[in-house]
Amino acid sequence: MKADVSVVTDHQPDWLQSYVDSPDKQKTLYKRTLKTVVIAQIFGGAGLAAGITVGGLLAQDMSHTEGIAGIPAALFTLGSALSAFLVGRISQRFGRRFGLSAGFLVGGIGAIGVVLAALMNSLFLLFTALFIYGAGTSTNLQARYAGTDLAKPDQRATAISIAMVFTTFGAVAGPNLGDTMGQFAQSIGVPELSGPFILAAAAYILAGLVILAFLRPDPFVVARSIAEQLGADETLSEEASEKPAINQRGVVVGATIMVLTQMVMVAIMTMTPIHMMHHGHGLSEIGMVIGIHVAAMYLPSLLTGILVDKIGRTAMAVASGFTLLAAGVLGGFAPVDSMPLLVIALALLGLGWNFGLISGTALIVDSTDPKTRAKTQGTVDVLIALSGASGGAMSGMVVAQSSYATLSLAGGILSLVLIPVVIWARRK
Question: Please, are residues 375 and 248 in contact by the beta-carbon 8 Å criterion?
């Protein structure tokens, strides 16, 4: 098969024109794209869990201070911000296949760097490697867009949810393999806490190879060609793409929903392992709580996607705000030794994030066209990553100066900002 093209011209390659002219081939490619993304997401989910579960613990162990426990989450989230921008630009120019595969492979290299940093006891290398590792985190999130390229408008949220729900398998397995990977790490002579990053390296690299090998023809290139065919009086030149026809309000609202939910979720999630360890909980218990949290982030996706398509984007955004509020209140008032209440609080935290991410993503897709969609999506994911970095960095400071309860309550209250945003969105 010929290589994917980066710019659609008046004379399409025969293979590409055959997809543009055939709704049946488009439908078949849509289904095959979802299958490929699903397989990559299973591996990608296992990769992202390492940073969530033990990144802060590893930094605290190497530095012997709690004050920087939130820095790892901030660093790999900042790394994910840069990679979101780059992956979006690469995807816009060359298609999803090259953008997503590059992001996953770079994330795998970063995870290898974390293992080397732990072996050398080098904080500088640890922080550098965590920044690079963030590429896998953002790419795993951006993969959700690939499923929407050929989806019909009333299928978009469902397509997003299908891609996300299969992240659950890897994302839940990752934290719960913490003890096993820790033992494996010790058996080969590296620190126990670096074990999950060995798993992350293998998982991200496999995800990148799956995308590179099987995401062809590239769904974004086909979708962009279809859009060009429908608007033959426009061009897809770089100059024309600078003036896209987009719904600015929809982009702003979708981005705001995802930014707020990401900030609240990352802030509370980052400090939960530290909070638990301080109160006598072991790595296996921490892995279980984070595993349930990550399951709640992704497992309900299929139902969430159907709800977003059926009852609307804004209604589910409101549900996100109230769910995050419930998570913050419960986490703030739960007794420190109560595992069941902590599990429920973190599950609600993940569920609220799920509602916000899928409704916000659907709004972004609705509000853009294929000519600049990937670039816009990448830019929005930069904002999401930066908000997560802010939440991760501030969370350690808040807990150090106050308490985990204060952090949880503040996060829950902040999530209520979603309500006036949605009210503004509904105004004509």
Answer: no
**Structure letter (DSSP) for residue 152:** -
Joined tokens for residue 84: 């979101």
Longest CA–CA span in the chain (Å) reads 67
Domain ranges of the chain: 27-426
- 261/350 Cα distance (integer angstroms): 10
Q: Of 172, 140, 157, 147, nearest to 257 (Cα)?
A: 157
The C-alpha atoms of residue 285 and residue 382 are separated, in whole angstroms, by: 32
Write down the H helix ranges in 166-194: 167-176, 178-187
Distance CA 412, CA 358 (A): 19
pLDDT 10s digits, 112-125: 999 998 889 888 89
pTM value > 0.70: yes
State which amino acid sits at residue 302: L
* CATH topology for the 27-426 domain: Growth Hormone; Chain: A; (1.20.1250)
d(CA 357, CA 6): 29
Contact 370, 218 (CB under 8 A): no
Give the tens place of pLDDT for each residue, 378-422.
999 889 888 877 887 788 788 878 888 888 898 889 888 888 887
Contact 76, 200 (CB under 8 A): no
